[in-house]
Write a structure and sequence with these properties.
The strands form three sheets. The protein has a seven-stranded parallel sheet, with helices on both faces. Strand 6 and strand 7 (497-503) form a beta hairpin. 34% of the residues are buried. It has 733 residues and is α/β, with parallel strands linked by helices. The protein has helices at 2-23, 30-39, 41-61, 95-106, 109-118, 121-128, 146-158, 179-237, 248-279, 282-288, 292-312, 320-375, 377-413, 434-459, 466-473, 504-507, 512-526, 544-557, 574-578, 586-590, 628-640, 656-663, 678-690, 705-722, 724-732; strands spanning 66-74, 159-163, 169-176, 417-421, 477-481, 485-491, 497-503, 532-537, 562-566, 609-612, 643-647, 666-672, 695-701. The protein has 25 helices and 13 strands. Helix 4 (95-106) runs parallel beside helix 11.
Length: 733
């Protein structure tokens, strides 16, 4: 009858066992990750608190930074410094290139030197942290001192210049620990940039105006000479007026005279441009004759110079990046020189073309004059003198207008920078952003703690789930239990209240823990011939006792006669789980101090559950577990009961449990997830297999951090005090 009941139980529970086994084959899920994070929650929280504390310390030590901003408008349409319409045509310049060039000029060394020199002694000291002294930085200095270079580097780092997208506006931002100094430096940079730009343009125009003035003096003398010749001719020939004869020779002569005058004017203008280009630097050449490529090269040259200045203040001239920058600057100088030479060659070509045209017109004009002389010498001579005088006067007047227009345009065009908004003293600090820093440190701390926890888990050899056990040990995982005890408060006779743990399958039969123990029971039932089952572990407090008690209760609920035997004679604890007396038990019987132990019923309503306690064993009774008496007693129990559940001793502490495992029909090994070590489990597995023990599988248990700490303390205590001699003997063997 009992065999039929057991068979029906195995059929009913086969489906739940299959589901439990299938779960062990799943990969790492989000729940597993959250479980590991929850397990390390205190470590992760400590990392987050440490990061927040560091961020608060950083905020306390770092002073507030203030930002003052000024807005400039760069109108590229007003950059035509010279109003000479006959200069060589150039490709249109993109607004972005012009603004980028102006941004580079804003951050140039000349503007920085002017800015530092314009600051007051108090502003300079607050910004740099040192007194400047009486000597200013010369604008034409060839080499800066280390201290001066550090001043300029600090100013460069404090200034940020950006174009406002889609506009001609440039935003200049200055950062400083003093709000007044930030505003003062912002306005000083704007003034220095404006003065620098105006002086560059004025210098270029002054050179061109000087040469044009000399040419106008020559033209003026030529007009005077032509006027004298015309007067002398009229007096010598008594000419009052020469009527304009309408014939082809005179008409052609008139036409050639006009063209020749135009060609001469063009030649003089081209020569003026050529002379101005030859006498100016590349920057002045760009101002006079805008060239997109030359502008881009000069902007890149300014960027490289700034990088070279910044690195040279920290490293020596042999520092590889400095050497590379020097080479790049040399190549950039060569490119700028070549591009400047290209502009000069184009101007030379224009001037040579104008000269050729003038020469051809002059030659043709001379021929026509000879023809006119043949027609009427007096009339031709008189016309020539008149034309020469008129042309000279016209050219002189034209150049005078160009010179006046160039001067006015240079002065107006030099003011192409307009201040839209000056820098004002900021009222609130721009940084540091306290809330963002604290939140960022919190996120960094949580992330670092999580990563450190997972790295620690990956680097250690602790058990991390059922898959690892099956892969590393080659043993099936029978169940994955979490909490199989429930603490109850029980009144004592003296009026006090004691807390005692009660098997979970009795207090909460529908709980998850009870379902996990049922999966273990199903594995035992389905094993068939497994009548004697040893439930043991590697170390104390890994769950062998609660799993054994709950397994025995479930088997008894199934209708089977079950005997629960506590073989841990030095520290029997099974009686405490049911609240029954401890003796006399197995220890007294093996020591010959009492008759064979009579199994007792620990639970009143479970008539099929019996238990043999460990008793009050003498010191040498532990060795008696390996005696023939114990084996005979075990065989008699096997005949009397359907299942004999043996509560084993920790195998890493004493090797007596190995002998019991070789006598039992099956051995269930308890291990704790996240605490037990794989190398210890492999050692236990090899030891059991070497002694021909039949390992049915592994039960993976979970425990809270509090119970883990309690288990470790108990393990140390038992290793040092409860099993001292047995532990030494086990280590020797």
């Amino acid at each position: 009858m009992r065999d039929q009941e057991l068979q029906s139980i195995s059929i009913i529970d086969r489906q739940s066992h299959t589901i439990q086994a299938g779960r062990s084959d799943e990969g790492v899920t989000l729940g597993d990750i959250l479980q590991r994070l929850l397990f390390h929650r205190w470590f992760i929280a400590a990392c987050a608190v440490a990061c927040i504390a560091l961020s608060l310390l950083y905020l306390k030590l770092r002073p507030s930074v203030y930002e003052a901003s000024a807005v400039l408008r760069i109108d590229s349409g007003r950059a035509e410094a010279l109003a000479i319409s006959d200069r060589p045509a150039t490709a249109p310049t993109e607004p972005g290139e012009t603004l980028h060039t102006e941004i580079v000029l804003l951050k140039s060394d000349d503007v920085a030197i002017r800015t530092l020199n314009s600051l007051s002694e108090d502003e300079f000291t607050k910004f740099i942290g040192l007194r400047r002294g009486p000597n200013l930085i010369p604008l034409d200095v060839q080499k800066l001192s280390d201290q001066q270079q550090s001043w300029m580097t600090k100013l460069e780092k404090a200034i940020t210049v950006k174009q406002i997208d889609g506009t001609q506006l440039i935003n200049l931002t200055v950062r400083s620990y003093d709000p007044n100094v930030a505003a003062a430096i912002g306005n000083a940079v704007v003034r220095a940039y404006t003065v620098q730009t105006f002086e560059n343009r004025a210098h270029s125009v002054a050179q061109l105006r000087t040469w044009l003035s000399s040419q106008m003096d020559d033209l003026k003398k030529h007009v005077e000479v032509a006027q004298a010749k015309l007067t002398d001719f009229e007096e010598a020939n008594e000419v009052v007026d020469t009527p304009g004869a309408s014939n082809s020779i005179l008409d052609r002569l008139h036409f050639l005279s006009e063209r020749l005058s135009t060609a001469q004017s063009d030649t003089i203008v081209k020569e003026a441009q050529l002379r101005a280009a030859r006498g100016g630097s590349p920057s002045e050449l760009t101002t006079l004759f805008p060239n997109p490529k030359l502008n881009t090269l000069q902007a890149a040259q300014g960027t490289l110079a700034a990088q070279y200045t910044q690195l040279s203040s920290k490293f020596g001239p042999k520092y590889p990046p400095l050497v590379d920058l020097a080479k790049q600057m040399h190549h950039m100088d060569v490119d700028i020189s070549q591009e400047s030479q290209s502009v000069l060659e184009r101007l030379n070509a224009d001037y040579a073309g104008a000269k050729r045209v003038q020469g051809m017109l002059q030659s043709e004009y001379d021929k026509q004059v000879e023809l006119a002389f043949k027609l009427t010498r007096n009339q031709a001579t008189y016309s020539v003198l008149q034309r020469d005088l008129a042309a000279s006067r016209e050219l002189y007047d034209a150049l005078r207008r160009k010179l006046q227009q160039a001067t006015v345009d240079a002065e107006v065009g030099g003011l192409n920078t307009m201040l839209v908004q000056g820098a004002r003293v900021p009222m609130e600090p721009a940084g540091p952003k306290k809330i963002f820093i604290v939140l960022g440190s919190l996120l960094v701390g949580l992330f670092a703690g999580g990563v450190a926890a997972f790295i620690s888990d990956g680097a250690s050899d602790r058990v991390r789930g059922a898959q690892q056990i099956e892969r590393e040990l080659g043993l099936p995982v029978l169940a994955h239990v979490s909490n199989v005890f429930k603490e109850l408060e029980i009144s004592q006779q003296d009026g006090g209240v004691a807390t005692r743990r009660v098997p979970m399958v009795l207090t909460a039969p529908s709980s998850k823990a009870a379902g996990e123990i049922r999966a273990l029971r199903n594995s035992v039932v389905l094993a068939g011939q497994a009548r004697t089952v040893l439930v043991t572990s590697g170390s104390p407090e890994e769950g062998a006792l609660p799993v054994s008690v709950n397994l025995a209760v479930l088997l008894a609920h199934s209708g089977a006669r079950v005997l629960l035997v506590d073989t841990d004679l030095h520290k029997p604890r099974a009686q405490d789980e049911f609240g029954v007396p401890n003796g006399p038990g197995l220890g007294e019987y093996l020591a010959g101090q009492s008759p064979a132990p009579e199994p007792i019923r620990p639970v009143a309503h479970l008539e099929n559950l019996f238990m043999v306690t460990g008793g009050h064993a003498p010191p040498n009774s532990f060795e008696l577990l390996s005696s023939p008496t114990m084996r005979i007693l075990l065989m008699s129990w096997k005949k009397e009961f359907d299942y004999v559940i043996l509560i084993g001793t920790p195998l890493l502490v004493t090797n007596i449990g190995v002998l019991l495992a070789s006598w039992a029909d099956a051995t269930v090994l308890l291990t704790q997830n996240g605490q037990s070590r794989l190398r210890e489990l492999k050692k236990i597995r090899d030891m059991l297999l070497h002694n021909r023990a039949r390992i049915q599988g592994v039960v993976l248990s979970e425990a809270s951090r509090k119970s883990v700490s309690r288990r470790k303390a108990s393990q140390r205590k038992e290793t040092r005090h409860v099993y001292p001699e047995l532990h030494k003997k086990a280590e020797g063997e």
